[in-house]
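User: For a teaching handout, I'd like to show students what a predicted protein-ligand complex looks like in token form. I'll give you the sequence and the SMILES for 2-acetamido-2-deoxy-beta-D-glucopyranose. Please answer with just the structure.
Assistant: Understood, here is the input followed by the structure.
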Amino acid sequence: MRIYSVCMLCSLIISSTASDTGVQPIVALVGDDVILPCTLRHTVSAVYQSIEWQRPDLKPKEVHLYRDEKDDLVLQNPVFRGRTSLFKEELENGNTSLKLTRVKLSDAGNYTCYIPLLNHQKTIIQLLVGAVSRPVIIIEGMEGDEVVLRCEAEGCYPEPVMEWCDAQGRVLPAAGPTETSRDREGCYTVTSHVIVPKSDNNTFTCRVQQLEIKHMKERRVHVPDQMFPKTCWLTVLVTVLVTVLVEAVAVGLYLLMKKWILTFRKEAWTSLMKNKETTKNEEDEASVLSLSSV
Ligand SMILES: *[C@@H]1O[C@H](CO)[C@@H](O)[C@H](O)[C@H]1NC(C)=O
Ligand SMILES: *[C@@H]1O[C@H](CO)[C@@H](O)[C@H](O)[C@H]1NC(C)=O
Ligand SMILES: *[C@@H]1O[C@H](CO)[C@@H](O)[C@H](O)[C@H]1NC(C)=O
């Protein structure tokens, strides 16, 4: 019996060292309750073990401590106060998972589940915390005969990628880069604009994706035809006529001005020449006068 349990301990140690890495991260959303999984290899009871849940990057690093068959939370980091528990009825099955309630953004990180007596059993659990919101679309106005749409998603973490699609799911180029801001808790608000022409199915989708937490949310909008500025044939005809008329008047005015300026210049030139001749005559007369007086 004694030999048997020693061997069992050996195999526990060996199997646990072999499979400590490469675990999928656990994803939780802000406000959720989450279970950080940890089990002893080979179903042995954990009731008489010490169980240490830690966050090595924090000070103090204790998240939850269990020893002498009860919780010992004297050393617990205050940020986890009242939010951690073990499944006491599961301990005898070797299930030492930790329940963390009311998850916050700051809970993201690597947790270790450490069983000192089974010296090498240390499981590392990576917890990712996200915050999500469904985007909102606003019809913002017109630009020419197109409609400007605005999409906004607030309180997101990690930073989401926002894109626009048409009814067929094709990505539409946004009107400018996505605007991003952060609030005090570190959550992102992102805004993106798109300018859309009238089409036979004015359905547009704003999609927000957070790849790290495998999260996607969409909002679809149908822009009614009457939102698009009218471009009926009469309007086009009137526009063309008015343009032609304005241009004709402009050309006419220009020609008139040109003619007027030419005439003016000619007159000015003629009078200048006349003036010059008169002056010359006067000078001649003056010299004649001075000669005669000598
Ligand atoms: C451990 O117990 C919890 C609570 O009952 C359960 O949700 C979880 O799946 C269990 N883990 C394993 C590995 O059995
Ligand atoms: C947690 O561990 C993962 C993989 O082991 C690593 O990439 C990541 O940087 C760690 N996170 C923190 C907060 O230490
Ligand atoms: C627009 O087209 C999509 C797919 O082609 C369809 O699912 C949707 O019902 C259509 N919407 C309208 C308002 O016609």
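For the handout, you might add this sentence: The two ends are 159 Å apart (CA to CA).
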